[in-house]
């Protein structure tokens, strides 16, 4: 459990460090989080058509909020592989 928390903290620190270096850092982080949550919502709406389900739990919400759309795509690829 501690390992996952350390990994999550490292991801947050890395994203915040990159955001600080941008001219509009807060807007970039917020936009990325919105895109991630929109991707999860779109997947939930299209689930009957595609058959692909991505549950909304703490882990997927964290990945969508911190990593955005690339994180959601990574979750889909992990689900496909595993």
Summarize, please:
It contains five helices and no strands. The protein has helices spanning 2-21, 25-45, 47-50, 58-67, 69-81.
Question: Which descriptors apply to this entry?
Answer:
mainly alpha; 82 residues; 5 helices; single chain
Write up what this structure looks like.
- Helix content is 83%, strand content 0%.
- It has one domain (2-81).
- It is mostly helical.
- It has five helices and no strands.
- It starts with a helix and ends with a helix.
Task: Give the low-confidence spans.
Answer: none
Largest sheet: none
- Arithmetic mean of pLDDT: 87
Determine the number of helices (DSSP H or I, runs of at least 4 residues).
Answer: 5
N-to-C span:
21 Å
Judging from the principal axes of the Cα atoms, what is the shape? globular
Q: Domain count, please report it.
A: 1
Strand content: under 5%
Query: What string gives the helices and strands in order?
Result: HHHHH
Fraction of helical residues: over 70%
Q: Based on helices, strands and strand pairing, what is the structural class?
A: mainly alpha
Instruction: Return Rg in Å.
Output: 14 Å
How many beta-strand elements?
0
Question: Secondary structure elements and their pairing?
Answer:
Elements: H1 2-21, H2 25-45, H3 47-50, H4 58-67, H5 69-81
Helix pairs in contact: 1-2, 2-4, 2-5, 4-5
């Amino acid at each position: 459990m501690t390992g996952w928390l350390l990994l999550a903290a490292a991801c947050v620190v890395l994203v915040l460090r990159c955001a600080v270096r941008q001219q509009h850092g807060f807007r970039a982080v917020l936009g990325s989080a919105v895109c991630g949550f929109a991707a999860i919502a779109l997947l939930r709406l299209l689930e009957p058509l595609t058959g692909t389900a991505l549950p909304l739990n703490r882990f997927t919400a964290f990945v969508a909020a911190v990593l955005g759309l690339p994180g959601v795509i990574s979750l889909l690829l992990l689900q496909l592989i595993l």
